[in-house]
Amino acid sequence: MESMIICEGLVKIYRVAGREVVALQGLELTVEAGEMLGIVGPSGAGKSTLMNVIGGLDRPSAGRVLVEGENLSEFSDAVLDCYRRERIGFLWQIPGRNLIPYLTARENVELPMIVARRPARERRQRAIELLEAVGLAERAKHVPAQLSGGEQQRVAIAIALANRPRLLLADEPTGELDSATARTIYQTFRRLNETLGLTVLIVTHDQNVAPMVDRVVSIRDGRVSTETVSVERREWRDENGEARKDDDPLFSDGSPLSSEELVVVDSTGHLQIPESYREQYRIGGRVRLEAAEEGLLIRPAQMGDKGKERQGG
Ligand code: ADP
Ligand code: MG
C-alpha cells in the first residue's frame, strides 16, 4: 500500500534579518495511511515547521514531501491552496484560533463547507453528523464562549474534518488543556482514526502520549532522532489468555503495554545518540566504529588519538 506521507531529506531555512535559521535539516519520515503518530521534541526543534510543510502552508528549501504519492513541490500555488483546504484538516493549540467566536458550533463547522461551495442542506446535515462524531450534538447551538476548552477543541476537530480530509495535522492541540481533558481529545482522535481511517499527526509536549498513539517520533535539531513503537497497543491478552482490544491502555489497569525506543538512522547515515549515552560514554566529536559480532560498536576516541591503538591496551 502507498504510504500517506513520505518526507525525504527535508530542509527548511528561514532567513530573518540577514541571519539564517535552519529549522529542518534533512528530515526523513514515513507515515502510513491510517496511522496515528505522535511527534515530540524540545521547543524550536522544527515540529511546527514540519507540520506546515506537510500541510502545504510552507514550502521546504530542499528535499521533498510526497502525500499519497504526490510531490507537493510540483503543485502550483493554486493547487497547493486547494490541497490545504480540501485534503488536510488542521488543529491548532489555541482553541480560539480554530473557531469564529460569534458563530455557533454548527455554523463554525459549516464554514469550510461554505468556502468549498457545498449546498446548504448537505452542509447542515454534515455539520450535525460531525458534531455527533465528536460527542457534541447537544452543543450545536452554543457559541464558543459557552463551551469549555475541551469542547471547543472537539468542535475544532469537527471543523477540521468538514471537507473529509484523509489527513489531520494537530499542532499541540492539548497544550492549553488539563490532562483529563487532553485524554478525551486523544480518544476522539482514536475513534475518528478507527472509524474513518483518518491518518493523524499530533505534535505534543505530553510525555504520556506514547500509549495513545501507534508510534512516537522525537525530533531534535530538525531531524527525527528516535522512534518509540508501541508493540502491543491494540491487542493484548488478559489473565485467561483471551485476546483483548483496548481503546485506552493508559488508564485501564493491567494492560501490558510495552514499547521500545529506537534510534533513527537516516538515508545519509546520520544518527543521533541520546544525550545520556553521550555523557555516560563520553562520546562527542570523533568516535571509533567497530564491527562486532552482534552489531556495530561505538567507542569514544581518546584525546590525541591518531587512529592507532596498541593491541591489548
Ligand atoms: P517547534 O514547533 O518544534 O517549537 P518550530 O518549527 O516552530 O519549532 O521552529 C524551528 C526553528 O525555526 C526555530 O528556531 C524557530 O525560531 C525558527 N522559525 C520557525 N518559524 C519561523 C519563521 N516563520 N521565521 C523565522 N524563523 C522561524
Ligand atoms: Mg511549534
Domains (count): 2
| Strand percentage | 25-35%
Residue stretches low in confidence (pLDDT < 50, at least 5 long) are 246-256, 307-313
Here the CATH topology of the largest domain equals Rossmann fold
Q: N- to C-terminal separation? A: 53 Å
The H-and-E topology, N to C, reads as EEEHEEHEHHHHEHEEEEEEHEE
Q: What form results from the Cα inertia axes?
A: globular
Count of DSSP E strands?
15
Give the CATH level 1 class of the largest domain: Alpha Beta
What binds here, in terms of ligands, is:
adenosine-5'-diphosphate, magnesium ion
CATH second-level architecture of the largest domain: 3-Layer(aba) Sandwich
User: Mean pLDDT, rounded to whole units?
Assistant: 86
Strand order of the largest sheet: 6-7-8-3-9-10-13
CATH superfamily of the largest domain: P-loop containing nucleotide triphosphate hydrolases
Would you write up a description of this structure?
The protein is α/β, with parallel strands linked by helices and 313 residues long. The chain has two domains: 34-57 and 74-263, Rossmann fold (3-Layer(aba) Sandwich); 277-310, no CATH class. 27% of the residues lie in helices and 28% in strands. The protein is built from eight helices and 15 strands. It has helices spanning 47-54, 77-86, 95-98, 105-115, 120-133, 149-160, 179-196, 275-280; strands at residues 5-16, 19-31, 36-40, 62-67, 70-71, 88-91, 167-171, 199-203, 215-220, 223-230, 235-237, 243-245, 259-263, 287-291, 296-300. It has a seven-stranded mixed β-sheet, sandwiched between helices. A four-stranded antiparallel β-sheet has the order 2-1-4-5, with helices on one face. Strands 11-12 form a two-stranded antiparallel sheet. A hairpin with a 5-residue loop joins β11 (235-237) and β12 (243-245). The longest helix is centred in the middle third of the chain and has 18 residues, at 179-196. The protein starts with a strand and ends in a 13-residue tail after the last strand. Mean pLDDT is 86; it is low at 246-256 and 307-313. The structure holds adenosine-5'-diphosphate (ADP) and magnesium ion. Magnesium ion (MG) binds at residues 47-48, 171.
